[in-house]
Amino acid sequence: MNDGFLSAGTGAVPVLKLGDVLLVTLPGDLHDGLAQQLQQDIGEAITRHRVGGVVIDISGVEIVDSFRGRVLAEIAAGARLLAARTVVAGMRPAVALTLVELGLTLPGLRTALSAEAAIELLGGPGVVRPAGRRREDG
């Protein structure tokens, strides 16, 4: 298994590969430039490592606005076009309420209470790859 830190691009947000899943922890101070770099890094990591899922951990995000909501939606849409599913993990109740108040229900985006639950939701290390094959651990 080739898991670990991926230095995809020059972004300040680490992208970790865990089996066939990328784990990204969104910082609370996400700004325009970093968001664009993160979207590019995730897309490149999906295609380079042929992962089937992306977990975006937002447990450190206390406040969400329309910009951050749009970034989540765009990351998920880009991943979906690259045949990877996205799960947002660790959403705080106040963040969920704010997203609803902003009208950002993020259709097609799955959520989980923790990063661990998100990885389980994606099938863990045996996530179906874009080519439709299951990775064999052993």
UniProtKB/TrEMBL annotation:
Pfam families: STAS (PF01740)
SUPFAM superfamilies: SpoIIaa-like
PROSITE patterns, alphabetized: STAS
InterPro entries (UniProt xref): Bact_StressResp_Reg, STAS_dom, STAS_dom_sf
Domain (STAS) ranges: 11-122
PANTHER family hit by this protein: RSBT ANTAGONIST PROTEIN RSBS (PTHR33745:SF1), RSBT ANTAGONIST PROTEIN RSBS-RELATED (PTHR33745)
Name of the protein in its database record: STAS domain-containing protein
Species of the source: Streptomyces galbus
